[in-house]
Structures
1.
Amino acid sequence: MRKPIIAGNWKMNNTIKQGESLVSDILGKDLSRDVEVVICVPFTFLDRASKLVTGTQIKLGAQNMHWEEKGAYTGEISPVMLNEIKVEYVIIGHSERRQYFNETDETVNKKIKSALTYNLTPIVCVGESLEERENGKYKELIESQVTKAFEGITKEDAVKTVIAYEPIWAIGTGKTASSEQAEEICALIRSILEKLYDADTSQKIRVLYGGSVKPDNIKELMNMENIDGALVGGASLKANDFVQLVNYKL
Ligand code: PEP
């Protein structure tokens, strides 16, 4: 049984004060115990957020990290620094990082390995652009992204990861992939994992969908066999919406 995850990606939103208020609003509501709840907040809020969520159901995630432990990497944050403030998850290879910050399949692979070394759960993002979807090459692209991301990673480590399928054309656009489109690629990702590892391993890895997930489409998405949760941008910034996503079964 794969436990569902609802993970919020706050992106570059919320000051510490705003973050405190959002976390307190979320914690003020009942959250389904059957779901793993994660918030991936800006670096500046991580330390404070860590204190606020300790002892609650909410788990903390970062939105990026460097693969090295320390050194001359101006502006970067290391996995050791994330460990120090009890961060448990880290988003790796979000399309915005690939698009604006030159993140490549190779750096994604290094970051996943490093996250696993430091006991952080990587949420590995893959997904195609609109152009790639329209030219029909998107399945090859997903296969290439997943294969390169997991290069050199053992199956014992692979099962500790989470993958998020996020079609770029559906992120922040209000254009959700239909549940059938999302399921098709999440199932494809599982079959790629089966090829890379084996059936048992592929059945253990959680595959999320991300791209304009909202309270009115979450149920349909979660009904799909290979969708184990959602990575949520916009709707994670509103306590009511986020809690409705967490409570999608109710
Ligand atoms: C995301 O940033 O990972 C995302 C899916 O954003 P949104 O939900 O706003 O489309």
2.
Amino acid sequence: MKRTILVTGGCGFIGSNFVRAALERLAASRIINLDKLTYAGNLENVSDLNGHPRYRFVRGDICDAETVGRLFGDEGVDTVIHFAAESHVDRSIEGPEAFIRTNIFGTYVLLEAARKSWIEAARKRRPENPVFLHVSTDEVYGSLGPDGFFTENTPYDPRSPYSASKAASDHLVSAYHHTYGLPTVITNCSNNYGPYQFPEKLIPLMIINALEGRDLPVYGDGNNIRDWIHVQDHCEALLAVLAKGRPGETYNIGGNNERRNIEIVEAICDILDEKLGPLDAVRPRRSLIRFVKDRPGHDRRYAIDAGKVMRELGWAPRFSFEDGLRSTVDWYLQNRAWLQRIVDGTYRDDYDRMYGWR
Ligand code: NAD
């Protein structure tokens, strides 16, 4: 089906991977990438798409109702894939306001624009089969003990300002479906890793610090468990949900790869030692690991039961974690200029403060 897709946050980590995958896979569809270019948005992530006949970038804020409304009206948007968000838990603890604004109010602005254009508009101006796909996180479910998995029926129990703002946005999306009949679908996905991830997140942060011989700060005892999925597997799952997901439904997406944080940091050290040699004759990179004061409210374990999306939509993750981590380390090694420009860029002060890089 030929769609006009508004992707929000398409210059970020997952959004940029998705735009690339969607242009390739949805050959008849047009993509409009609406991104504010916050510290996490990087036009370089999509620079290879400049000039693509079915792609257009618009710099703008999802909280700006006029910009969003104009895009729906002028472009005939019939599909929304909503990634734009403030996404880093540590930043939400330091300053929740931007999270409340973008993640909650921004989602509301998009929902209102969709409602006006898809539900309230005169019948002949309404698009056929519109879809509003809201991309969310498993962090809305809170923290698990040693056993069990998050399912689509797990009660919400967010613990950080980030997860609380995402939970609020999920509830709004669901309310627009129940109240106005907006054809929404929600996906809750586990931790992503892969190319183009901003180097404040665990895996790229550890890669860059280990490359440069800097300390590798690990929260608490390092035994917090996350369920990791390669970003390209996540994007494939989103394409499956777009094609076959049922309005009003939620789909949990995960890679079935539970790992303790410390295991991941050690694996990155070992891969880099193997590829580049140790730091010097007596120091393997594991010697850079430092346990630091735990993050307040740090959730202990996340694990996703992705059975529904696998059974109902026929999706399955393709990357093994070991191969995915190796290819991710390779990508960062091959794209050191990309990494360096971020580190040298305007975010330098934040990096200094949060990670002691200079
Ligand atoms: P990211 O921080 O890398 O990218 C966010 C993008 O949104 C950036 O390009 C930024 O410029 C843009 N943006 C932020 N505020 C905006 C605004 N007000 N208007 C327009 N654009 C704005 O995030 P990510 O890791 O790619 O995550 C994307 C989405 O997926 C988020 O909604 C996040 O909650 C969700 N998610 C992420 C993960 C993960 O592991 N990264 C897991 C599950 C779900």
